Amino acid sequence: MQENEKKQVVVTVTGRDVPGIMSGLTEILSRDGVKLLDMEQAVTHGWLSLSMVIRFEGSDISDTLVLKDLLFKAKELGVNLDFKVVEGEAQVRSTAHQFAITLMSEDLQARHVAAISAVLARRAVNIDSIRKLNEGGLACLELITYTSSDIDVGALKDELLKVASVFSQLDIAVQRENLYRRAKRLVVMDMDSTLIQIEVIDELAKLAGVGEQVREITERAMSGHMDFDESLKQRVRLLHGFPESEMKALAERLPLMPGAEVLVKTLKRLGYKIALISGGFSYFGEKLKDKLGLHYVYTNNLEIEEGRVTGNIKGSIVNAQRKADLLEMIAQQEGVSLESVIAIGDGANDILMLKKAGLGIAFNAKRKTREAASAAINQKTLASILYLLGITDKDIEEVAR
């Protein structure tokens, strides 16, 4: 090999992972005149994949001898070693061209990965690394990808979502891979059908004997076919005379969304602030605040007199615009940028809030909300949102200790 400062050698090592492989190989590379430029390693089911980029810089170093010694050491260690001479300087990738693509399914299969990777190939997007985030069977993969130039991220996302729609229960999220993705500090979420499994006002209506009327109004409002303020006033009027004692009983048995406690507990231990901003009622929001240790709760306040609902709302209505404004207000109070905020919701009145946040997640949401969000997932557990932050099941277990 002729000496050339722009020539580099990519060394790849594969085999059963045992102690001493890294030590044995890097001892040879520690000789004067050998410069280590890059290194990456992964172990999958006990099988090692190690890559190193080196450059020979000294005139008194025999590159042939070093490579020969590496081959002998690899044989001694019981691993396979190969090398390739490449031209050019080490590539420095701009984070502006990097994306994190998260795939989620109860049973993630090769056909899912094949369909997604075909889209990436057509758009000249390379996969830099793949990481399994869950434990047990394959259910979540994180692909870190890059391109050599700017691409239309919206078009890429739309095409990936179109492919995902062909499969049942396959969710895909596309995010810029940069510091902001890993530096989120505030999570704002809706209450009904997001943090809890029910729509509280519908449950109250059933108990009050006006379930069908209220359910129809709720559905129209959540689908964006009716003004939220007016729909809320109409529904609350139907609750006139409802006893506070029954509200208290319902508040005691609110069914949390599966994974809600794991999500909140994990994020709190990692230093996140958690806010509940909902068009629901404070009677129930405050109960959840106490139960989960939420930092902020903003909800609508039902007027109650002499132990019964009057049919009126006290104070300003927490509607779509108010939700977005409250998100921004809390972010300012906490001293975090909007880019560092996560918003989670399912209805049309969450759209402005989702758009305001750096990461807006539509959780088991209506179509209009999914289309407006930066990420949409339809999983059974709220804890799956942690995967979008690159948090693994192992991380969750460690935080829980």
Describe the structure.
- About 40% of the residues lie in helices and about 25% in strands.
- With about 400 residues, the protein is of the alpha/beta class.
- The chain folds into 3 domains: about 5-85, Alpha-Beta Plaits (2-Layer Sandwich), CATH 3.30.70.260; about 95-175, Alpha-Beta Plaits (2-Layer Sandwich), CATH 3.30.70; about 185-200 and about 255-400, HAD superfamily/HAD-like (Rossmann fold).
- It has a 7-stranded mixed sheet with strand order 12-11-10-9-13-14-15, sandwiched between helices.
- Helix 3 packs antiparallel against helix 4 (about 155-165) and helix 7 (about 200-210) packs antiparallel against helix 8.
- The two termini are about 55 Å apart.
Mean pLDDT: 91
What does the overall shape look like?
A: elongated
| Structural class estimated from helices and strands | alpha/beta
Report Rg.
Answer: 27 Å
How much β-strand is present in the residues?
25-35%
Spans of at least 5 consecutive residues whose pLDDT stays below 50 are none
The helicity comes to 25-40%
> What is the CATH level 1 assignment of the largest domain?
Alpha Beta
Strand order of the largest sheet: 12-11-10-9-13-14-15
